[in-house]
Amino acid sequence: MQVMEAEASTSPALTEASDVLQRLAGAVRAQVIGRDDVIDLTVIALMADGHVLLEDFPGSGKTTLAKALGEAIVDDQSPTETNHAVPIAAFRRIQFTPDLLPSDVTGSPVFDTNSNSFHFRHGPIFAHVVLADEINRTSPKVQSAMLEAMGEKQVTVDNITYALDPLFFVIATQNPLDLVGTYPLPTPQLDRFLFKITMSHIDRDAELAVLDTWQQRRSPAADRVRVTRNEILAARRSIDEHVYIADGIKSTLVDISRALRADERVLQGNSTRSLVLILPALQVLAALRGRAYVNADDLDMLLPHVLAHRVELAPGVADFAKVLRDCMREPLEQLARSTLKAH
């Protein structure tokens, strides 16, 4: 994919935003070898204010990826910007198990004998980057608490709502092979994730590089290239304001979705929410590629990652990539023809 090697943007605001993402992706790449495509998609999701679901196997580098991303972000809020009662960590890892309770994720009221009153103890979800490890191993009740936080950027405990940081970002994982004792996420819950990324083993050269450089990559986080929280939030705003999405792009998205829903090989199509979620991701990708507008190439690259976990195929149909290509062909051709006429 290598979208981070984009040419310079014509807009100073987009150039600055692209520089922030280049530094962020570079910091993660220094710790995670052989996963450039996954890193690019993860950074795009962070900038688009989405979340990522990784299908992986043990030891594939998911924890290293999430931790490297969290440690690359410096919280530079001033005392007037932050609520000191809400501690925000750079990175937290939650290992989901069958006996986990919602309060183990969100936090819970604790009785203070000194003040003779209850106070709220914040859970591990109060972090910039949260790794929800093996999210399908916990009960639906815990999954629902996690997904409320992802969708609303808040948690509610004892009828009191606590806001999460605007930068709050979740990387959830599930093992596609070991399904014993799991609670698979239903399609409406999968819809909360912007991307679903299937990871495979890295190639031989990358695996050798991991073995050769493991000591160097253990350097303290303070010695690495880092970006600030406010730089990321400012880059989000710049991309939203300066990257244009033409009506033709939106029409193409709708037409592809309608074609998928009408295809006899599809049991359930994607939601309208998925089309809303993909728009900022397309803007981020366009900015990284040095453009102030979204084009068909951006659609072609991101749609498989956005739609694969949202579309349920009919029994006996296994090749989603082929179904999507077939449904994309005519809308993309119409987009190309309308673009040529406009010029």
Automatic annotation (TrEMBL):
* Domain ChlI/MoxR AAA lid, chain residue ranges per copy: 259-312
* Top-level lineage group: Bacteria
Give the originating organism. Pseudohongiella acticola
Per UniProt, what is one Pfam family of this protein?
AAA_3
InterPro entries according to UniProt:
ATPase_AAA-3, CbbQ/NirQ/NorQ/GpvN, ChlI/MoxR_AAA_lid, P-loop_NTPase
Q: Gene3D superfamilies in the record, alphabetically? A: Magnesium chelatase subunit I, C-Terminal domain (1.10.8.80), P-loop containing nucleotide triphosphate hydrolases (3.40.50.300)
Example GO molecular function? ATP binding
Q: What is this protein called?
A: AAA family ATPase
Show where the ATPase AAA-3 domain sits.
51-195
